[in-house]
From TrEMBL:
Domain of life: Bacteria
Domain RNA polymerase sigma-70 region: 30-95
Subunit comment: Interacts transiently with the RNA polymerase catalytic core formed by RpoA, RpoB, RpoC and RpoZ (2 alpha, 1 beta, 1 beta' and 1 omega subunit) to form the RNA polymerase holoenzyme that can initiate transcription.
Species assigned in the record: Herbidospora solisilvae
Keyword Transcription regulation among record annotations: yes
Lineage, top ranks: Bacteria, Bacillati, Actinomycetota, Actinomycetes, Streptosporangiales
Domain RNA polymerase sigma factor 70 region 4 type, residue spans: 140-189
Annotated protein name in UniProt: Sigma-70 family RNA polymerase sigma factor
GO BP of this protein: DNA-templated transcription initiation
Annotated family: Belongs to the sigma-70 factor family. ECF subfamily.
Swiss-Prot/TrEMBL keywords: Sigma factor, Transcription, Transcription regulation
Entry's Gene Ontology molecular function annotations: DNA binding; sigma factor activity
Length: 335
């Protein structure tokens, strides 16, 4: 995403489109960037619905500012600048978009506004997808939320997008020294939030699930459909980190406590014992869509999206998202 020294074809076409009152050429030129801009907004906001809204806001702002575009920067860079500032404006107006302390001692913070991101909406550009898994995994998205908004923006444009400090400073209306200082602080926070995890976000990372991951997902779904609590528990690492969103205070940090909570909540008991499951992927991570049929309902209805992080054949992190009455991820509402 380097600045263009002279306007390229896209930039020249956009300058021509900016002089027209016809929106069609503008839409044609900008729509190709929708998916990557939406991922960018998601990294900033950790919420799929908010990311969709801010992407649309980006295009509205770009339309109103189109006459100011001179081609001194690449069209993509110009759109990213608008998207970043749209997200910052959004965060300035919201007081519910920061992590809150977890009730469980030593468990850190909860990001209750977190939503999964459907893989089908990830960019198709190989240059984007080569970093997508490392920079869109739930753990990364949650860690980024612990950065103050402007520091978050600096970290994303510098360490994820790979912008030079001068371009980041121009986009965020900061000095190069401020950008450098903010990035250093952000990296310290990210290392604290992701101990032991790889921190070179621009290195190639596999974006396909491994056979091991697919096998664990299948076993997880089979255990639900068989009402097999023992089999389900056997898939969990003892230090499992479990959270159910958007419910508050559901963070659990051992497999035993998670299983005990599921049992006390009625899992595999009458009313919660007729499951059908569909394998899917979100945030470049293995996931299962769980459908529940209650005794008075002829259909299985989408109930929960369970996103799994799997290490050495065990589930180490399980994040559940309440999917009832939500048309999420392109999944069918009923089975």
């Amino acid at each position: 995403m380097t600045d263009a020294r002279v306007p390229g074809d896209d930039e020249a076409a956009f300058i021509a489109a900016a002089r027209s009152t016809d929106a069609a050429p503008f839409v044609l030129l900008t729509e190709r960037y929708r998916r990557e801009l939406q991922v960018h907004c998601y990294r900033m906001l950790a919420n799929y619905e908010d990311a969709q809204d801010m992407t649309q806001e980006t295009f509205l702002r770009a339309w109103h500012k189109r006459a100011s575009f001179r081609g001194h920067a690449a069209l993509r860079t110009w759109l990213y600048r608008i998207a970043t500032n749209a997200c910052l404006d959004f965060l300035d107006k919201r007081d519910d978009r920061t992590p809150v302390p977890a009730d469980l001692p030593g468990a850190g913070s909860e990001v209750r506004y977190l939503q999964p991101y459907p893989d089908r909406m990830l960019p198709e550009d190989p240059q984007e997808s080569v970093v997508a898994r490392e920079t869109i995994e739930l753990a990364f998205i949650v860690a980024v939320q612990h950065l103050p908004p402007r520091q978050r923006a600096v970290f994303i444009v510098r360490d994820v997008l790979g912008w030079p400090a001068s371009k980041a400073a121009d986009a965020l209306e900061l000095t190069v020294a401020s950008v450098t200082s903010a990035l250093q602080r952000a990296r310290v926070t990210m290392r604290g939030q992701l101990p032991g995890r790889r921190l070179d976000w621009r290195s190639p990372a596999p974006d396909e699930l491994s056979d091991e991951e697919r096998g664990v997902v299948k076993a997880y779904m089979d255990a639900h459909e068989r009402n097999d609590l023992t089999g389900l528990a056997a898939l969990l690492r003892h230090d499992l980190r479990f959270a159910m969103l958007a419910e508050p205070s559901t963070l659990i940090v051992t497999a035993k406590d998670a299983v005990d909570g599921w049992v006390s909540g009625g899992l595999f008991q009458r009313g919660h014992d007729d499951w059908r499951c569909v394998a899917t992927t979100v945030n470049r991570m293995p996931a299962a869509a769980l459908y529940l049929r209650t005794p008075d309902d002829p259909e299985h209805r989408l109930y929960t999206i369970a996103v799994l992080r799997i290490v050495d054949g065990k589930i180490t992190e399980l994040t559940g998202f309440d999917a009832r009455d939500k048309p999420w991820l392109g999944l069918p509402a009923t089975l």
